[in-house]
Amino acid sequence: MKKRSKRYKEISKSAIKNKKIEIKEILDLVKKNSTTKFNESIDVSLRINLKQSKGGDLSLRTVVNLPNGSGKKYKVAVLCEPDKIEVAKKSGADIAGSDDLIEKIAAGKFNFTKLICTPSMMGKIGKHGKVLGPKGLMPNPKLGTVTTDITKTVKDIKTGLVEIRNDKDGNLSSTIGRKNFSTEKLQENYNYFIETVKKEKPDTIKGEFIKSIFITSTMGISYKVGAK
Q1: What is the per-residue pLDDT across 94-145, written as a single tens digit (0 to 9) for each?
Q2: HEC string for 21-76
Q3: Are 104 and 97 in contact (CB under 8 A)?
Q4: Together in a domain, 65 and 167
Q5: In terms of pTM, does the model score above 0.70?
Q6: Is 3 inside any structural domain?
């Protein structure tokens, strides 16, 4: 039998079953249970309906620009034309380059967690997709990482842009902040996140799009939103 820590046993006392609780109360409980020394992530997990009346299963992949940011730190690299490198650096990019950056990528040097690319440089980076793709680093127009507006894109990623993507079973998850966020800011981020996902529902899916919602922290227990 798996041995539970004293901390886990203590926070498990606040578990709620067979009772409907509001989102504010859940967020208060999740924050209360975030008792580790580090700034835990507050995460939302959804189960969505993938079954379309026409065509194959839905594949949802998009970005959400949380109004209060995510609290997550990204090291942003910008691949652009030589004359735009200075603009990228002034925008707050941690790394900016042109052919020199492509050479580093080709050599397997990925000293960044997000890669932004201008449209004209996509032809050069395309052949490295097999390496960048599995790492989640390949620039994608739908996700806003292929752009002509370097300044705005860097700012969005630095302040609160998060990427979401469902798995084959219809699960998707995202951070909505950190434990040092106020409950009000977390709730605002949560509401914005849920509304964004709802807007992604295609007409070919009938009935409820979001089947279930759970909220937890990095080292906490989860709570089902609207559980009965």
Answers
A1: 999 999 999 999 988 888 999 999 999 999 998 898 889 888 899 999 888 9
A2: CCHHHHHHHHHHHCCCCCCCEEEEEEEECCCCCCCCCCCCEEEEECCCCCCCCCCE
A3: yes
A4: yes
A5: yes
A6: no
Establish if 5 belongs to a structural domain.
no
Planar angle of CA 214, 143, 174, nearest 5 degrees? 15
Q: Which amino acid is residue 100, in one-letter code?
A: D
Short-list 66, 32, 94, 63, CA closest to 223? 32
CA distance 106 to 21: 51
Q: Are residues 53 and 21 in the same domain?
A: yes
Q: In terms of residue numbers, what domain contains 148?
A: 77-159
Q: Are both 191 and 90 inside the same structural domain?
A: no
Do 198 and 145 sit in the same domain of this protein?
Answer: no
pLDDT tens, 4-48?
666 555 555 555 665 667 899 999 999 988 888 899 999 999 999
Assess whether 65 and 168 both reside in one domain. Answer: yes
* Cα 94 to the center of its chain, rounded Å: 20
Q: Please provide the average confidence, as pLDDT, over all residues in the chain.
A: 88
Residue 223, both tokens: 């709570």
Burial of 163 (0-12, 13-18, 19+ CB in 10 A): middle
